[in-house]
Amino acid sequence: MSSSPVRVRFAPSPTGMLHIGGLRTALYNYLLARKHDGVFVLRIEDTDRERYVAEAEKDIATSLAWAGLSFDEGPGVGGEAAPYYQSERKDIYKGYVQQLLDAGHAYYAFDTPEALQQLRDEAEHAFSYNAATRGALDNSLSLTDEEVQQRIANGEPYVVRMKVDHDITVRFSDEIRGSVAFEAEKIDDQVLLKSDGMPTYHLANVVDDHLMGITHVIRGEEWLPSTPKHVLLYDYFGWEAPAFAHLPLILNPEGGKLSKRDVERGGIPVSVRDYIERGYEPEALINFLALLGWNPGTEQELFSLEELVEAFSLERVGTSGVQFDLDKLNWFNEQHLRRLDLDGFVERVAPYAPKGESGYLRDVCALMQDRVSFARDVISEAGYFFEAPTSYDEKGVKKRWKDDSAMLLQAYADSLDEAATFDAETAEQRLRDLADEHDVGAGRLIHPTRLALSGVTFGPSLFAMMEVLGQRECVSRMRKAVQELGD
User: Fold this and answer.
1) DSSP H helical segments within 341-470, as ranges?
2) 63: part of which helix (H) or strand (E)?
3) Can you tell me the distance from the alpha carbon of 243 to that of 218, in angstroms, rounded to the nearest whole number?
4) Pairing state of beta strands 159-162 and 169-174?
């Protein structure tokens, strides 16, 4: 680990809703920064103006805030390295492009998109704009200086490309993958400045990381092939490159890269917004994502964000792709709901609950907290706490409603109606007394009572449930079931 203060950045492109893989990248950057008392920077890479989506930019901020990943510098926060929108740094990049041109590390290219497409169509193998092809193309390396200046003066569109020599090997060390090498002949002359005057990701990324003092670049494995271009740019500018760390891919259950198709095929959400809308707990998703590529070296699975900060290290991030397991995520969601104190759990359930007396909701939540996977399940799976059942589980009725159930339930309702006090202990004692009186097992009353109160054959402790529902409601529901289900 570098001895200099750790500065990391999350640099999403607002062209679509934040991907779950993007949130994992943000998380690992956040953890490294917090682990070393460093700085977490948010930078919006919005140079691709044709694909820019304003809603996507808002989604980035919303998703990070929901996940609890606060940044120290960035839009809305500020910082010494502002501005943090690449579209607002356009003039900064121009000076560095000129520096590369003056040093012979870049050149003007006037090739039209149509001409380049024709070359791609006619090529026997994949066409690459590089040292082997650029001499025959329309650029400042094949034209005289006078011709170049005249064409620029005439307003002809051009791009600026990086000049890559092919007789070198580009080497760098990756914090996760170790030593990595690329032969330069496989690196194309990347466009650095587009014809609209905006920089490409490659140039802006390197310039901004240098000017913002970024010490560690943590990003997805898909950016690994671009890294030699960035290393070359650092060399051309005479700058020290940051430490690179390329995270393993997140794979679908079949082993392919997780994509939008997996939402339709396997029900796996891809965007963070989808997880928010489905009711996942932010702590659960963060815990799950942290372990999707990293392991703590212990048997511990459940972590708070603070515990993750304490345990995290890049050294324990793996190189192999990791399959996404939705069932495992759901398990994490259950566990994190159960880790909440009761007040916290009530707070999570409240947005889904009917408006009413808060004390009653708290009593319901106390019974249901250990029985649900999502906060909304308290309402969807135990709606009988808020509204009397309008129907009864058909299979449950066939199995649990006996010939004497109506008689026994009526007698139980009458007994409860006469009770001077009502709580779980009273409800249980009167049921057992009645079972003894009629010489039947307690189950002969318990099962039809549960059906009458909830409409289903499962749920929390029957007598605790009765105490929450209250004396009048229990008696009313039991008498209604007697009438509807009959003998």
Assistant:
1) 342-349, 358-368, 377-380, 394-400, 405-417, 424-437, 443-454, 462-469
2) helix 54-67
3) 8
4) unpaired
Q: Can you read off the two tokens belonging to residue 431?
A: 């049921």
| Catalytic annotation present for 260 | yes
Whose structure tokens read 């891809």? 270
Residue 321 and residue 251 in contact, taking contact as beta carbons nearer than 8 Å: yes
| φ, ψ for residue 323, nearest 5 deg | -75, 140
> What's the half-sphere exposure (Cβ side, CA atoms, 13 Å) at 424?
9
Q: Does 451 map to a domain?
A: yes
Quick one: how far is CA 334 from the chain centroid? 17
Are 175 and 125 within one domain? yes
Does some domain include residue 161? Answer: yes
pTM: 0.91
Confidence of residue 1 (pLDDT cuts 50, 70, 90): very low
Query: What is the total count of domains within the chain?
Result: 3
Q: How far is CA 433 from CA 157, 401, 427, 430, 453, in A?
A: 93, 20, 10, 5, 20
Domain end call among 164, 193, 222: 193
CA-closest candidate to residue 208, choices 90, 304, 308: 90
What are 9's strand-pairing partners? 41
Which CATH number covers residue 401? 1.10.10.350
**pLDDT tens, residue by residue, 279-313:** 999 999 999 999 999 999 999 999 999 999 999 99
DSSP string computed for 364-392: HHHHHGGG-SSTTHHHHT-GGGTS--SS-
Length of the chain: 487
Residue 249 phi, psi dihedral angles, 5° rounding = -70, 150
Within-domain flag for 314: no
CA distance 81 to 60: 20
- The span from the CA of 80 to the CA of 201, in Å, is 22
Q: Which one is catalytic: 58, 186, 260, 399?
A: 260
**CB–CB of 409/448 below 8 Å?**
yes
